[in-house]
C-alpha cells in the first residue's frame, strides 16, 4: 500500500512539473477561464487527452521494456537527457523571463471554436507527445508493476491543474499575468527536471 501511494505521489509530482510550464495550452485554458467561456469543455478535453496519452505512454513503453529488457537502459539515457534539456530550458526562462501570461484578448466567439482550438493545441503539439507518451512512459516503466499507479498519479495531476487553472482563473489570472509567478514555477520545474534527469542517466 505504501509503495502504491509513493508511486502515485511520484507520478502526481512529475506530471505537475511537466504541465505547469508556461505554454500555449495553459494560456488558452486561463484565458477561457477568465472569460468563463466553455471552461468545462476545455478543462475536460485537456485532462482527458492527457489521460489517454499517459495511458498510451505507460502501456507502450511498458510493452517494449517487457519484450526487450535492454530498453530500460536506452529509455533511461534518452529520457534522462531529455529531462536535463527540459530543465535547462526552464532555467533559461527563470533567467530570461518573458512578459508573463496574457489572459486578455478577443473572445473566442463560440463553444465550437473553443473546443476545436483546444483540441488543436493539445493533439497537434509535438511537446505533448514527448512529455506524456515518451517521458512519463519512460519514468513509469522504471516503476515496474507500479507503472500504472504512477500513470494514475500523473493523470490526476493533469486534472487538478487544468481544473484549478480554468475554474480558478478569476483569482489566478491576476497572479499569473506577470512574469514573477512563472519564474517561481519555472524554478521548481527546473529543479525537478534536472534532479530526475540526473538520476535517470546515473542509474542507466
User: What spatial form do the alpha-carbon principal axes imply?
Assistant: globular
Specify the biggest β-sheet.
none
**Mean pLDDT over all positions:** 78
Q: Give helix and strand order, one letter per element, not per position.
A: HHHHHHHHH
What is the count of DSSP helices, taking H or I runs of 4+ residues?
9
Q: Which structural category do the helix and sheet elements fall into?
A: mainly alpha
In terms of DSSP E residues, the strand content is: under 5%
Number of strands: 0
Gap between N and C termini: 27 Å
> What are the low-pLDDT stretches, counting only 5+ consecutive residues below 50?
103-108
Rg is: 17 Å
Helix content: over 70%
Summarize the model shown.
This protein has 204 residues and is mostly helical. The chain is built from nine helices and no strands.
Task: Write up this protein.
The chain has 204 residues and is mainly α. The chain contains 9 helices and no strands.
Features:
204 residues, mainly alpha, 0% strand
Show the helix and strand layout.
Elements: H1 2-19, H2 24-35, H3 39-67, H4 71-95, H5 111-123, H6 126-141, H7 147-167, H8 169-176, H9 179-203
Helix pairs in contact: 1-6, 1-7, 2-3, 2-5, 2-7, 2-8, 3-5, 3-6, 3-7, 4-6, 4-9, 6-7
Amino acid at each position: 500500500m505504501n509503495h502504491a501511494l509513493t508511486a502515485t505521489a511520484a507520478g502526481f509530482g512529475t506530471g505537475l512539473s511537466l504541465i505547469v510550464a508556461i505554454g500555449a495550452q495553459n494560456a488558452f485554458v486561463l484565458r477561457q477561464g477568465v472569460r468563463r467561456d466553455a471552461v468545462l469543455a476545455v478543462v475536460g478535453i485537456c485532462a482527458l487527452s492527457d489521460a489517454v496519452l499517459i495511458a498510451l505512454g505507460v502501456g507502450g513503453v511498458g510493452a517494449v521494456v517487457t519484450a526487450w529488457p535492454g530498453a530500460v537502459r536506452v529509455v533511461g539515457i534518452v529520457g534522462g537527457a531529455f529531462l536535463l534539456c527540459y530543465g535547462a530550458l526552464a532555467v533559461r526562462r527563470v533567467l530570461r523571463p518573458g512578459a508573463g501570461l496574457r489572459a486578455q484578448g478577443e473572445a473566442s466567439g463560440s463553444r465550437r471554436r473553443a473546443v476545436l482550438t483546444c483540441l488543436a493545441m493539445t493533439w497537434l503539439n509535438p511537446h505533448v507527445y514527448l512529455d506524456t507518451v515518451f517521458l512519463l512512459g519512460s519514468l513509469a516503466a522504471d516503476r515496474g508493476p507500479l507503472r500504472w499507479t504512477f500513470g494514475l498519479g500523473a493523470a490526476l495531476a493533469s486534472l487538478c491543474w487544468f481544473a484549478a487553472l480554468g475554474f480558478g482563473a478569476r483569482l489566478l489570472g491576476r497572479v499569473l499575468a506577470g512574469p514573477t509567478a512563472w519564474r517561481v514555477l519555472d524554478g521548481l520545474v527546473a529543479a525537478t527536471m534536472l534532479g530526475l534527469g540526473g538520476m535517470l542517466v546515473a542509474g542507466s
